């Protein structure tokens, strides 16, 4: 192999990937006889593979690259300056300027009264940290509470604690028994609810389910309820009116902490710095990662309310938890620069201003017989695929496997778009582009998806 700028050693990347790289959540056998997709560079909302082919990244990496791929120079310069000044130091008993500045910045963007920031290396670690914090908070208040309540089909991460909270059977079962005593309540999927049900009735139905679960667990043992403001897995489930107000009231009634998992929704994705602001959720703890640095660094943050932080700020009390890379100065410098860019480009405001336009563009796809529903808000949508949009009948597991893995994933990639055909709940296509995407990209998404989903429609007999 000849050396190039992105492959200076001239390594045979394709062969080396097959020989040495262990890809995440990947059926590696699929690449035994097929090439591994190798993404070499990015610009704006686009990625380029090692053959120079361009892809529209309609997933922002993994729901994360808010500013797109074009800020390497500017963010790199901030990382470089930090590397020169202080490449690493810890937040275990010490502070350093960048983690202090970043914590202050985040506290300023977070909902009122959420002023204390604990840094992690990513989303799973943020969720782990929140659960431990919730447990220790109750202990500090003289109670012993340890249980968590999550929601069906929600993904909260892959480490054992976060996986235990995750409500996706297929990725839990290989690792059972998991951390015990987590239960799951209904999510806010409204597709296929009875036709005459009002929004108010739906909200009440969900809150009744949560209340029953709290009682059946024994409320005095429940440490936290954890929910994404808009649930990704299953396909961009938005909360019905009054839902989070009701969840908050139930948590207050039973002394349970409410955790908003904003690993995806945080940092602009739904048109506000935090979805908790947009939906007035008033959480006790927010978990975040991804968009905090636009995924230019592996940094996450747990943001605690003054109430949650208070017991740990007195006397000899301590949150008995930490990770080597928490608040890493270079990662913090990258996150600070990312937020500065997002503020300068007014990305959350831009998302809010263009979300209707985006949704209206995507709604054209509802004309296809295979598209049953369009859900979501901000720059965060899902199309649910159905056998027939007249009946909204869904696919069997076997049919979904054939359609999603056997056809769609590969065909979408071949057609030059990256979005996710996901079957963790009913089959959906998830769309979550960089926040710098504009009408031109919305149109391109619809053109390519329209073509490929049209083929899929014919494949399933339309
Ligand atoms: C809502 C939510 N929580 C937690 C996580 C885990 O984050 P990470 O992959 O950074 O560990 C994810 C990842 O997609 C997520 O979507």
UniProtKB/TrEMBL annotation:
List the Pfam families. Answer: Aminotran_3
**Gene3D superfamilies the record matches:** Aspartate Aminotransferase, domain 1 (3.90.1150.10), Type I PLP-dependent aspartate aminotransferase-like (Major domain) (3.40.640.10)
* Molecular function terms from GO: transaminase activity
Q: Which family does it belong to?
A: Belongs to the class-III pyridoxal-phosphate-dependent aminotransferase family.
Which domain of life does the protein's organism represent? Answer: Bacteria
Q: Does the keyword Transferase apply?
A: yes
Give the organism, scientific name: Conexibacter stalactiti
Question: Which protein is depicted?
Answer: Aspartate aminotransferase family protein
InterPro entries linked to this entry: Aminotrans_3, Aminotrans_3_PPA_site, PyrdxlP-dep_Trfase, PyrdxlP-dep_Trfase_major, PyrdxlP-dep_Trfase_small
Keywords linked to the UniProt accession: Aminotransferase, Pyridoxal phosphate, Transferase
């Amino acid at each position: 192999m000849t050396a190039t700028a992105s492959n200076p050693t001239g390594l045979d990347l394709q062969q080396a990937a097959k020989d040495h790289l262990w890809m995440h959540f990947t059926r590696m056998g699929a690449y035994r006889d097929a090439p591994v997709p190798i993404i070499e560079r990015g610009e704006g909302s686009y990625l380029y593979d090692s053959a120079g082919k361009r892809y529209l990244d309609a997933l922002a990496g993994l729901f994360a690259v808010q500013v797109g791929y074009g800020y390497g120079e500017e963010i790199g310069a901030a990382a470089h300056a930090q590397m020169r000044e202080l490449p690493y130091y810890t937040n275990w008993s010490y502070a350093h300027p960048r983690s202090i500045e970043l914590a202050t910045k985040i506290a300023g963007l977070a909902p009122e009264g959420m002023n204390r920031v604990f840094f992690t290396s990513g989303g799973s670690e943020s969720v782990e940290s929140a659960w431990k914090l919730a447990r220790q908070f109750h202990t500090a208040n003289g109670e012993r509470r340890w249980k968590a309540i999550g929601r069906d089909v929600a993904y909260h991460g892959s480490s054992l604690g976060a996986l235990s909270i995750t409500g996706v059977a297929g990725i839990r079962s290989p690792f059972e028994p998991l951390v015990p005593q987590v239960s799951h309540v209904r999510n806010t999927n409204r597709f296929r609810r009875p036709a005459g049900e009002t929004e108010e009735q739906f909200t009440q139905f969900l809150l009744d389910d949560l209340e029953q679960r709290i009682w059946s667990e024994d409320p005095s043992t429940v440490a936290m309820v954890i929910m994404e403001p808009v649930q990704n897995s299953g396909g961009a489930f938005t909360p019905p009116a009054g839902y989070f107000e009701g969840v908050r009231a139930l948590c207050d009634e039973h002394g349970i902490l409410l955790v908003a998992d904003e690993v995806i929704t945080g940092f602009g994705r739904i048109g506000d710095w935090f979805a908790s602001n947009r939906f007035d959720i008033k959480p006790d703890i927010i978990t975040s990662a991804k968009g905090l640095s636009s995924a230019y660094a592996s940094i996450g943050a747990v943001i605690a309310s003054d109430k949650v932080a208070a017991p740990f700020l007195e006397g000899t009390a301590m949150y008995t938890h930490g990770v080597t890379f928490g608040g890493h100065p270079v990662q913090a410098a990258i996150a600070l620069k990312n937020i500065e860019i997002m503020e300068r480009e007014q990305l959350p405001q831009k998302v809010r201003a263009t979300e209707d336009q985006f949704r209206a563009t995507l709604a054209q796809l509802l004309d296809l017989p295979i598209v049953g529903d369009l859900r979501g808000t901000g720059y965060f949508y899902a199309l649910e695929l159905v056998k027939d949009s007249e009946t909204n009948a869904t696919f069997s597991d076997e049919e979904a496997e054939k359609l999603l893995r056997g056809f769609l994933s590969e065909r979408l990639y071949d057609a030059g778009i990256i979005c996710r055909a996901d079957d963790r709940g009913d089959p959906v296509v998830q769309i979550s582009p960089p926040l710098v995407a504009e009408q031109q990209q919305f149109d391109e998404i619809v053109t390519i998806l329209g073509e490929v989903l049209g083929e899929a429609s014919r494949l399933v007999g339309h």
